[in-house]
Amino acid sequence: MEKSTELDVITSQLQQTYKQVQHDKTSMRFFRSTLKDLSPLVHQIDQYNDQLNPPREEIKLLTKESPAEQRSLCWNRQAVMAKDVKDTLYKLREILETVNKENFEKKISGSGGLVLRGTFGVPQNPEFTVGLDLLLIKLKMEVLRDGRSTLLVTGLGGMGKTTLAAKLCWDLQVKGKFKGNILFVVFSKTPQLKIIIERIFEHCGHSVPEFQSDEDAVNELGLLLKKIEGRPILLVLDDVWPGSEDLVEKFQFQISDYKILVTSRVALSRFDKTFILKPLVHDDAVSLFRHYTQLEKKNSNIPDKDLIQKVVKHCKGLPLAIKVLAKSLSNRPYELWEKIAKELSLGRSILDSNTELLTRLRKILDVLEDNPINKECFIDLALFPEDQRIPVAALIDIWAESYGLDDAGVEAMNIIKKLDSMNLANLLIARKNASDTENYYYNNHFVVLHDLLRELGIYQSTQEHIEQRKRLLIDVNENKRNRWLEEKKGKITRILSKLVKWWVKPKPQQIPARTLSISTDETCASDWSQVLPALVEVLILNLQTKQYTFPELMEKMSKLKALIVINHGFHLSELNKSELLSFLSNLNRIRLERISVPSFGTLNNLKKLSLYMCNTRLAFEKGSLLISDAFPNLEDLNFDYCKDLMALPNGVCDIASLKKLSITNCHKLTSLPKYIGKLGNLELLILISCTDLVELPDSIGSLLNLRLLDISNCVSLSSLPEDIGNLCNLRTLYMTSCASCELPLSVVNLENLKVVCDEETAVSWESFQSMISNLTIEIPQLEVNLNWLHSIRS
């Protein structure tokens, strides 16, 4: 009875909030956005209604009330139906904390205390865990206490520290106390404090200051968080490395109810309490192993119990090793089980050191031996910095040049999915489009690599003698260089130290590697005077600096085929001396991310240019070199999240070789060039989420080789041109969320067309279905997943 009464009170408060903001458009937009994710519950209630008792009065009211009130009443109904009413109460309280009138006024006016936009950076809630419950209870007791404290969770790499921290953040009692005031920050080996704090400021809805130093950034963060004074705050600093204790102390602000949770591979000092993650007991290890091998789902060829016990025993209770090994053995021949068990029984304990762990984990790669390219692709994932998402589009470019994989990315995606299924990498789809099934759009796809597995990739790449290596990783970050020289233990460390010494030899060294990855920050210059990279075919530059100058030796890279430049910092990076690229006669593809694109010279052989989250003004503004002159043989041109792109560069219609033009998430683009019909070889035209695009030019009807057109989420597009009926080779048209787009009568000429759209847009096409004999209308059911929100960077 008490639970129902409390639900009624909360529902009443929601309705009151709606009444208070319904006449303020800004407030109403924020209110609707907050409650938008509750809409699936309405559908779920209907399902419950069919299975359980007849609906109560609240359901009957859904068709009469406003959308916001419908969602509020749905919550009431859902609470009655749910097995655990407390779960719903916590969710409702969290919503009320976000949408009450006081918070709306603070969010809108900018006065008063700080209101966070929900939790920041918290990973997905782990779906299956073992051996963490007791430690979680102890950790919760400390976190739920009032007052200030700094807690440490420590254990060997891959033991489950991040999993435990994520599980804590998702705990209902913890969420009930801290509401949206939970910040989850990946610290890593060389934390970039300014970048971390810049993103927190952005998340809080505040303008991002120009920090003068790390200390200045931390001080400003303290002032920001003190605006929440009176409400509990939980800050998680994940993966803190030795030597960073002083940095952690900088985050210990004088706030009344403020908890810091630190996770580290090493038992650091200076903390109020330490929680040690120990290896799993054998029964828990077996349970975890059986879960990931899915043995219970198999009816035959199940390995005998003794063999399972032997395999699990040699994992020594390390969750990451258990998980990866289990995935690799799932549904594999019995002989492979015996082979792995025998090999794991040799040598020292798998827990002796990280080096030993990497040695043992190498044996798991035996399952990749059926295709050597799979193993090479896994090692390539280590070419990117730790704790960073790896763009699948970049991997497609690298692997197309290194291994001859197809440009469409089908083969690359098959490899990535295999690595993902074995838990050697995790595939993350930021947001899923209906057009993803067409195997041409991978801008929203990323690979996430566990630190330990990245070290495994580095370990694999350093097994050959330096003069024979296929790839070379160089980190010229000042902090990392100093640490390399200071560390004395471990085989990997010795190799890296030798590499540094070799790197700084006064005599220029010829790099034999075909793939070169260089990571640098603003403390290190781009001087390659001691290197002769004449054999490099793929160059990856991982930047964390506002300015980067291509070295003069760049023009000596005569065999370079692919250039990938990714800025991992918060602000856009400017590239200088880009004219040196004109000397590279074999350069086929360039991908730039978060770059202020320079004005290019002439690149006669460039086939593909991809710009992601870039500023294009300097490159294509009036008076600079026409894009048709700069890239006369370009076949594939991609713009994604380029905020300043209002019109296509002059001359794009003169690139006769262009086969694919992709402009996605460029919200300021209002129109396409009038003479786009001159692109006679164009096969794919992709215009996803160009929300300000109001029309397509009539000349589009001249694109006789066009086979795919995607205008999904171009919500301002009012009609298709009459000449679209001339596209005799058009086979696929994607137009989700285009219900207001009028169709001309000429579409009846598109005899073999497949239209992929939503239900509202399908209504327009159904009237033509009887006139187009082979017309196919597909309405895909897209999976809704909001776990990517914390990783989006604007």
**Backbone CA Rg:** 28 Å
The first-level CATH class name of the domain at 133-276 = Alpha Beta
Q: Count of helices?
A: 27
CATH topology of the domain at 133-276: Rossmann fold
* Major beta sheet summary: 13 strands, parallel
Going by helix content, strand content and strand pairing, the class is: alpha/beta
CATH architecture of the domain at 133-276: 3-Layer(aba) Sandwich
Helix content: 25-40%
Query: Which regions have little confidence, pLDDT < 50, spanning 5+ residues?
Result: 1-7, 36-90, 96-112, 479-491, 501-506, 784-794
Look at the structure and give the mean pLDDT: 78
Number of strands: 26
First-residue to last-residue Cα separation: 47 Å
Topology (SSEs and partners):
Blueprint: H1 2-21, H2 25-35, H3 39-51, H4 57-61, H5 67-81, H6 85-99, H7 101-109, H8 133-144, E1 149-154, H9 161-170, H10 172-178, E2 182-188, H11 193-203, H12 214-225, E3 233-240, H13 245-250, E4 258-264, E5 273-276, H14 282-293, H15 305-313, H16 319-329, H17 334-344, H18 354-362, H19 372-380, E6 390-391, H20 392-403, H21 410-421, E7 426-429, E8 445-448, H22 451-461, E9 471-475, H23 478-486, H24 491-503, E10 509-510, E11 515-521, E12 531-532, E13 538-544, E14 547-549, E15 562-567, E16 573-576, E17 589-593, E18 595-596, E19 608-612, H25 617-620, H26 627-630, E20 636-640, E21 660-664, E22 684-686, E23 708-710, E24 732-734, E25 754-756, H27 759-766, E26 776-778
Parallel strand pairs: 1-4, 1-5, 2-3, 3-4, 9-11, 10-12, 11-13, 13-15, 14-16, 15-17, 16-18, 17-19, 19-20, 20-21, 21-22, 22-23, 23-24, 24-25, 25-26
Antiparallel strand pairs: 6-8, 7-8
Helix pairs in contact: 1-5, 1-6, 3-5, 5-6, 6-10, 11-12, 14-15, 14-16, 18-22
